């Protein structure tokens, strides 16, 4: 198994301090360095993965406390653990550091072996919490996003569409006559079928930048497709519906095809209409219901 090597950002305005910490940590971690608070914030916000920040407090322009405050205030940086590494050995300073959200506070001069284990402990906690977060948003059967993830993410996506004045398509998908499938082929085969469907949906979603697919319920999936024009979405979903039937998963008990098929309903979020996520989903669901009553194996918009 290849071991994940964590990345640590060392922030200090004094190069010799960076050098000392680097010597201690360079064999076990990828290291990044910043010699100012501004640079630290820039690196932490850049989107590349940082697993821990070692942060000096006394620095010109913005000090470590301010850096910490700003990183904790932003969604994309507030989960990075911060250890203050400082000569400020007053209890009040230490308390202030912890109150700002730091996970540890190391006072200089320090003992290298102790820094090593305190860093190792925090990195280990960070990796475990990342793993938990990831597991909490993935469906165990199909390995695509689950409903919890979609419910949390969708309002943020819609906010972004609102800001950018972009439309967004939501497609609700449901497997046709799936109860019959389970009843006749067994639940185990039903599970395999859901896994295959998820793979197929993912393949198409991966063709669209920023798109995602989630398992919304038992045999229901949701596609989120940003920016596309309605005609493009219709064409894509028609392809997906055909592709699913072409998987040729035998379903002798379906009334529409000898194979497993899906029905789909489309809803489009328009930025000037200010629809809530639940509204858009309800519209997609209504269209899906229509697709079912129109005979299944089709998209209704
Ligand atoms: P329709 O075409 O109207 O959608 O009919 P349907 O039979 O697919 O609809 P219904 O909602 O009655 O059936 C959904 C079935 O999906 C019932 C349930 O047994 C099955 N199902 C839900 N979750 C799972 C799962 O995780 N694994 C398996 N194998 N089956 C599941
Ligand atoms: Mg300093
Ligand atoms: Mg259903
Ligand atoms: Mg169904």
From TrEMBL:
GO terms, biological process: cell adhesion involved in single-species biofilm formation; negative regulation of bacterial-type flagellum-dependent cell motility; phosphorelay signal transduction system
Keyword Phosphoprotein: yes
Residues where 4-aspartylphosphate is found: 56
Domain GGDEF: 166-301
Pfam family, one: GGDEF
SUPFAM superfamilies reported for this sequence: CheY-like, Nucleotide cyclase
Organism the protein comes from: Aquella oligotrophica
All copies of domain Response regulatory, residue ranges: 7-123
Keyword check for Phosphoprotein: yes
UniProt xrefs under PROSITE patterns: GGDEF, RESPONSE_REGULATORY
Keywords recorded for this protein, A-Z: Phosphoprotein
Superkingdom per UniProt: Bacteria
Catalytic activity: 2 GTP = 3',3'-c-di-GMP + 2 diphosphate
GO cellular component annotations of the record: plasma membrane
NCBIfam families, per database record: GGDEF
Protein name (Swiss-Prot/TrEMBL): diguanylate cyclase
InterPro entries: CheY-like_superfamily (IPR011006), Diguanylate_Cyclase (IPR050469), GGDEF_dom (IPR000160), Nucleotide_cyclase (IPR029787), Rev_trsase/Diguanyl_cyclase (IPR043128), Sig_transdc_resp-reg_receiver (IPR001789)
EC number of the protein: 2.7.7.65
GO molecular function, one term: diguanylate cyclase activity
PANTHER family: DIGUANYLATE CYCLASE DGCM-RELATED, REGULATORY COMPONENTS OF SENSORY TRANSDUCTION SYSTEM
CDD domains (alphabetical): GGDEF (cd01949), REC_PA4781-like (cd19920)
């Amino acid at each position: 198994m290849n071991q994940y090597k964590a990345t640590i950002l060392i922030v200090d305005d004094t190069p010799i301090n960076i050098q000392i910490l680097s010597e201690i940590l360079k064999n076990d971690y990828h290291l990044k360095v910043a010699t100012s608070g501004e640079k630290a914030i820039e690196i932490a916000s850049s989107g590349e993965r940082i697993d821990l920040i070692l942060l000096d407090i006394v620095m010109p322009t913005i000090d470590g406390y301010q850096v910490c405050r700003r990183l904790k205030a932003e969604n994309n940086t507030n989960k990075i653990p911060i250890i203050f590494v400082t000569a400020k050995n007053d209890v009040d300073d230490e308390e202030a550091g912890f109150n700002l959200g730091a996970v540890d506070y190391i006072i200089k001069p320090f003992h290298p072996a102790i820094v090593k284990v305190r860093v190792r402990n925090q990195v280990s906690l960070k990796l475990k919490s990342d793993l938990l977060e990831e597991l909490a948003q993935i469906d165990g059967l199909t390995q695509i996003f689950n409903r919890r993830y979609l419910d949390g993410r969708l309002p943020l996506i819609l906010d972004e569409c609102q800001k950018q004045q972009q439309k967004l398509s939501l497609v609700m998908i449901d497997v046709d006559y799936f109860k019959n499938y389970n009843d006749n082929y067994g639940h185990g085969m039903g599970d395999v079928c859901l896994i295959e469907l998820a793979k197929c949906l993912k393949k198409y979603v991966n063709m669209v930048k920023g798109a995602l697919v989630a398992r919304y319920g038992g045999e229901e999936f949701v596609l989120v497709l940003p920016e596309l024009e309605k005609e493009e979405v219709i064409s894509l979903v028609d392809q997906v519906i055909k592709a699913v039937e072409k998987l040729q998963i035998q379903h002798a008990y379906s009334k529409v095809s000898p194979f497993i098929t899906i029905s789909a309903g489309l809803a489009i979020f328009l930025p000037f209409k200010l629809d809530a996520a639940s509204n858009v989903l309800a519209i997609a669901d209504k269209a899906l219901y229509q697709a079912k009553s129109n005979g299944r194996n089709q998209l209704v918009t």
